[in-house]
Automatic annotation (TrEMBL), chain A:
Segments forming domain Ribosomal RNA large subunit methyltransferase K/L-like methyltransferase: 234-295
InterPro entries: DNA_methylase_N6_adenine_CS, RlmKL-like_Mtase, SAM-dependent_MTases_sf
Region (Disordered): 425-444, 561-589
Protein name per UniProt: Ribosomal RNA large subunit methyltransferase K/L-like methyltransferase domain-containing protein
The keyword Transferase appears for this protein: yes
Composition bias, Polar residues: 562-573
Regions annotated as coiled coil: none
Pfam families the UniProt entry points to: UPF0020
Keywords of this entry: Methyltransferase, Transferase
UniProt organism field: Cyanidioschyzon merolae (strain NIES-3377 / 10D) (Unicellular red alga)
Presence of keyword Nucleus: no
Superkingdom in the source lineage: Eukaryota
Molecular function terms, GO-annotated: methyltransferase activity; nucleic acid binding
GO annotation, cellular component aspect: cytoplasm; tRNA methyltransferase complex
UniProtKB/TrEMBL annotation, chain B:
GO molecular function, one term: protein heterodimerization activity
Organism: Cyanidioschyzon merolae (strain NIES-3377 / 10D)
GO biological process, one term: tRNA methylation
Similarity comment: family membership: Belongs to the TRM112 family.
Annotated InterPro entries: Trm112, Trm112-like
Pfam families found in the cross-reference section: Trm112p (PF03966)
Protein name (database record): Trm112p-like protein
Length: 589, 148
């Protein structure tokens, strides 16, 4: 007999902190949904509300029988969940806050207000019936809602139609009560129909015995970020490593991006993460990259290569000559202004796709801003692009003379290059021994940098430009399961939640890390040369899961990062021996 | 590049603010009025840099810009005025300067001499793309001597 959640509040007062059921999507590991919920709980709950909630939460909710089931605690909000089950139960949000979270959460099907839970439907029905008799359920549905319906869902076991009918029979008494006493009518469709959910969860049953959860549906998930609308397959400009729309929204959500905020992506690429940030309301969207062609536009997009395939070989050669023409002519406005707005209906979309495919054959140049134009994102939310090398960042660091200007950025959200499909490159400066020709051909001079150098640069930047409480969100690639020894740490940052793992091909996986900037000041200028990222002390000869990624993944010793030169050679002190490897990518295959 | 972005950039080599010079093209793109965002950004700005930038793009809003940034004690009063829906000349000027003025072509000069090029509205702040006028002058001199 489970009585974990059965004393849920039954009135519809929006300001009561109570239990909610979160139906999590199953397309990603459930840890992603939990991380998203946890971060969004933090975001929606105003700081002043936290103290009030501590006082208002009744003692039986925080009783000892719950404490051993607490998996994640964010401020005052508690999330109960089982690793595999579809439903998670939270305690401590109001209905309005739960709706606000669900509006943004991409990994949530729907959110329900929990009425009661039990081991069986009969158990729940009996409890609800007794509550009806006591007059408690009178407030369970909003006063202005005169229609309602039941909906059923089951996780871990298929629910046959006969079984569903049998379940409804159990609640027949309740129906009598509502239809006769409260003058409410059953109706199956329509916007103003309140839905009462009968949810079964067999995984949760194994965990804590609460097999049946009954509640009122509050809102569907992800209304604010319709992933389908922003899918990569319809976007004008994508690259080989463009972030999937759903994951981009997930990253923006865990970064807590909202209206009025400043977001920075130092590895902007094709701008997927910035699109998600802008859609969620960020007011200032900044991107920087080392790569010339993603910033200034290119006709060699990933889709163009994919769609054309071998058949497009002829047009490819033809178009190459036109690319050079376009490169030679300054100004890209003539080529990019032909992208149309996102079409409203499906037939238009097909025509638009055909039109774009046609355009593509005449070597149109694509650009990050085309995606923003395509989705009709307001002009002030378009990204500001800067070409820079993150290992030598040009973002303003706070002035020690003016401490109030400390931190101008609210979130840094990015996907650093792993050195597998996108190179971990850095700009290589002209060296003392270079010939004049090498010295002047500045544009293509690149060399590989170890991934750790990018990690260090990212943390250094974040420690300086983020405001206190700002978040750093990025993916950490790894070839083995992450342990505590592998987590990069920084004196100014603390982790939120647990790192979430996404399996990629082979041994490769990546972990979504979410960090919050603490109030502590960044290290002083005196420590500028020493590394700021540190790790937990590991056993001797321990190789971290993200070290030497390419060499370990492909088992090719030549790609080892130990063969790379030390990063950041200064302009004059580099010995002449390095001059031959101005582009070290050719020297180190 | 909006002037707001310019305010957040420094020279990658010397870590000093950059001055806008030799502006060849400026775009004014009107956008929705955003007083709350501007108020939020005021404490985060380098005010003297903003004034210098406004002068270098020859904006007509320079006069509406006070000599010094509004102090933190003045901000609550501004916030109240914004909440009540007033149009403040200061915020109008900031809206025009920070959000609507785009430098499309020009140069960003570091006080140490080198400059970075803004092309198509995208500044190239790679350390190896810095143009050093003294170096270029000597190279040009070398070219002319070779040519002659």
């Amino acid at each position: 007999m489970c009585n974990c959640f059965r004393r849920g509040d039954l009135d519809t007062n929006d300001n009561v902190r109570t239990y909610h059921i979160w139906w999590r999507r199953s397309n990603h590991p459930k840890t992603f949904a939990d991380l998203e919920l946890q971060c969004l709980f933090d975001t929606v709950r105003a700081p002043e509300a936290l103290d009030a909630s501590a006082a208002s939460s009744s003692p039986e909710h925080s009783g000892g029988d719950l404490s051993h089931r607490v998996f994640g605690v964010t401020e005052q909000c508690i999330l109960h969940r089982h690793q595999q089950s579809a439903f998670a139960v939270s305690l401590g949000l109001t209905d309005a806050e739960a709706r606000a979270v669900a509006r943004r959460a991409v990994l949530v099907h729907a959110v329900y207000r929990l009425w009661c839970s039990g081991t069986s439907h009969a158990d729940c029905a009996a409890l609800l019936d007794s509550l009806c008799k006591a007059g408690g359920l009178k407030y369970a549905l909003p006063k202005d809602a005169s229609y309602f319906r039941f909906e059923q869902a089951s996780h871990g076991k298929r629910l046959s139609m006969t079984q569903q009918q049998r379940n409804l029979q159990i609640y027949a008494k309740l129906l009598d009560h509502w239809t006769t006493v409260e003058q409410r009518t059953i109706q199956l469709s329509g916007d103003d129909v309140e839905r009462i959910a009968l949810l079964e969860d067999h995984e949760l049953a194994a965990d804590c015995g609460a097999r049946v959860l009954v509640g009122r549906r509050l809102a569907p998930g992800g209304q604010l970020c319709p992933v389908h609308r922003y899918r990569l397959s319809a976007r004008p400009f994508i690259g080989t490593t463009s972030m999937d729309a759903e994951l981009a929204f997930l990253m923006a959500n865990v970064a807590g991006i909202g209206p009025g905020q400043t977001v920075l992506d130092p590895y902007v690429g094709t701008g997927s993460i910035l699109i998600a940030s802008a859609v969620l309301g960020a007011s200032q969207v900044l991107g920087s990259d080392l790569d010339r062609w993603v910033l200034y536009g290119t006709s060699h997009t990933a889709r163009r290569r994919h769609r054309n395939g071998t058949a497009g070989r002829e047009s490819q050669t033809k178009s190459d000559s036109q690319i050079t023409l376009l490169r030679a002519s300054p100004g890209r406005t003539c080529t990019t202004s032909t992208i149309e707005e996102h079409p409203a209906n499906a037939t238009n979309r097909v025509h638009a796709l055909e039109a774009r495919t046609h355009d593509r054959n005449i070597a149109q140049r694509y650009h990050i801003l085309d995606n923003f134009r395509f989705y009709g994102i307001p002009r002030h939310q378009w990204p500001e692009l800067v070409r820079m090398d993150l290992l030598e960042p040009a973002w303003a660091v706070p002035d020690p003379a003016r401490p109030e200007r400390f931190g101008w950025c609210d979130a840094i959200v990015c996907d650093p290059p792993y050195g597998i499909r996108e190179g971990t490159r850095q700009a290589s400066r002209a060296c003392a021994g270079d010939s004049d020709e090498e010295r002047t051909s500045r544009t293509m001079r690149r060399r590989r940098a170890p991934f750790a150098a990018h990690l260090e640069a990212l943390f250094r930047l974040a420690a300086r430009v983020l405001c206190p409480g700002g978040r750093l969100v990025f993916w950490l690639p790894a070839v083995a399961a992450l342990t505590a020894y592998d987590l990069p740490r920084h004196a100014s940052f603390e982790y939120i939640g647990v790192p979430c793992c996404q399996r990629m091909r082979g041994d490769l996986r990546r972990y979504l890390l979410v960090l919050r900037k603490t109030d502590r000041m960044f290290p002083s200028a005196a420590a500028a040369s020493s590394p700021e990222v540190f790790y937990e002390e590991a056993p001797p000869h321990y190789q971290r899961a993200h070290e030497d990624l390419a060499a370990r993944l492909f088992r090719v010793a030549e790609r080892s990062e130990q063969l790379l030169q030390a990063p950041n050679p200064s302009r004059t002190t580099v010995p002449a021996a390095d001059s031959g490897t101005g582009d070290a990518e050719t020297a180190v295959p | 590049m909006r002037l707001l972005t310019h305010n957040l950039l420094i020279c990658p080599v010397h870590k000093k603010p950059l001055a806008i010079r030799n502006v060849s093209a400026v775009d004014i793109i009107p956008v929705e009025y955003q007083p709350r965002f501007l108020l939020r950004m005021i404490p985060r700005l380098d005010w003297s840099l903003l004034r210098a930038a406004a002068v270098s793009v020859e904006s007509d809003c320079v006069d509406a810009l006070p000599e010094a940034a509004p102090s933190p004690s003045e901000l609550p009063a501004l916030e109240k005025a914004v909440e009540s829906g007033d149009r403040l000349p200061l915020l109008d000027a900031l809206q025009r300067l920070l959000l609507e003025t785009h430098v499309v072509g020009g140069q960003l000069h570091c006080e140490h001499g080198e400059f970075y090029v803004i092309a198509d509205g995208i500044p190239n702040l790679l350390a190896d793309a810095a143009v050093n006028p003294s170096e270029t002058a000597s190279e040009q001199a070398a070219c002319t001597t070779e040519g002659s």
